[in-house]
Amino acid sequence: MMLSSAPRGRPRDNRAHQAILTAATELVTELGYAATSIGAVAARAGVGKDTIYRRWSGKAELVYEAVFTETEATPAPDTGTLAGDLTALLEALIQEFTAPAAAAALPGLLADFAANPGLRARIRSEFLAPAKSGLVTVFERAVQRGETDPNVPVDLVLDTLAGAVFFHVGLVGEQPGPQLAAQLAAVAGRGIETR
Amino acid sequence: MMLSSAPRGRPRDNRAHQAILTAATELVTELGYAATSIGAVAARAGVGKDTIYRRWSGKAELVYEAVFTETEATPAPDTGTLAGDLTALLEALIQEFTAPAAAAALPGLLADFAANPGLRARIRSEFLAPAKSGLVTVFERAVQRGETDPNVPVDLVLDTLAGAVFFHVGLVGEQPGPQLAAQLAAVAGRGIETR
């Protein structure tokens, strides 16, 4: 297998880095988060455990990077309306949360993050930063279009959207219907009050 | 101690039942969810493990009942407005999620629920049922007042409110400010779009 033939003991080797992320993704999908160990990831990736610990603080941080790497890349949607942009952001979020590896990892991963003060302190400042910057861009455009006012509590809206998707899909385990993103965007964007 | 003097081996004994719930609440608060075991709860409550397993499927269900029992009792708020009722529901939710035992238990508890198909299947139908019935009552009154329309996706709104509080307070660990419930009620109720 390509993975086990990845070169050993070369920390800056990009192939080793990728092999570790791939092995973590595969093991979490096959065994679940709790049963995945750093030792098993190292063995499958063909590296030493020390190579993993030189790059990641532990299982939670490694699995987070392995299952959520794409997040960083996604550019902010620009559909021309706040409702459209929120729907696009939510569709991406639902896709991330429902990808097999992420779905298998998410509950245990969130529990480890919440239970570890060091990681917990980095959630807002680091792990949620890319998603927030996309949301900030979306709101800046919406303010320019007069769709919302400048003092929207962006962190709170981000927590609301991410929490809703986690709770609905990740925890309760609902199969996300085609309308879920639009419905959540409507709740957050237009609210449930009739005017 | 009263707890350890609770009578043994009498499944229907209400004092034993209460002693088990109290012991579970204390241990989760002292040790955290992961470090709390059925054996330790049984020892502190002065009952046998079999007494616990006769009543609860395992740690997750026991801890859930121990830290969230009050939920069932709460009547639906009736402040006269949807925003006011949502704020009241959210204040109760924030209080539940931030109570020491619940805060200590929540991440690990949710991970166990999500990872256990049997428990997961009961989340919507059983564990969320009291909260949903309160929300349904609130929406029925809001529809009568013309504040919202009859086809509000109640389950989705419930997941959104609960998910937002979990993510913001339970996961990210924000100290809930006095305005949090009203801000979340505004996001869900009036939305973030300006009309």
UniProtKB/TrEMBL annotation, chains A, B:
Q: Name one Pfam family in it.
A: TetR_C_11
InterPro entries given in the database record: Homeodomain-like_sf, HTH-type_TetR-like_transc_reg, HTH_TetR, Tet_transcr_reg_TetR-rel_C_sf, TetR_C
Give the DNA-binding residues: 37-56
What is the protein's name according to its record? TetR family transcriptional regulator
Domain of life from the UniProt record? Bacteria
Task: Identify the Gene3D superfamilies for this entry.
Answer: Homeodomain-like, Tetracycline Repressor, domain 2
Q: Which keywords belong to this entry?
A: DNA-binding, Transcription, Transcription regulation
Q: Where is the HTH tetR-type domain?
A: 14-74
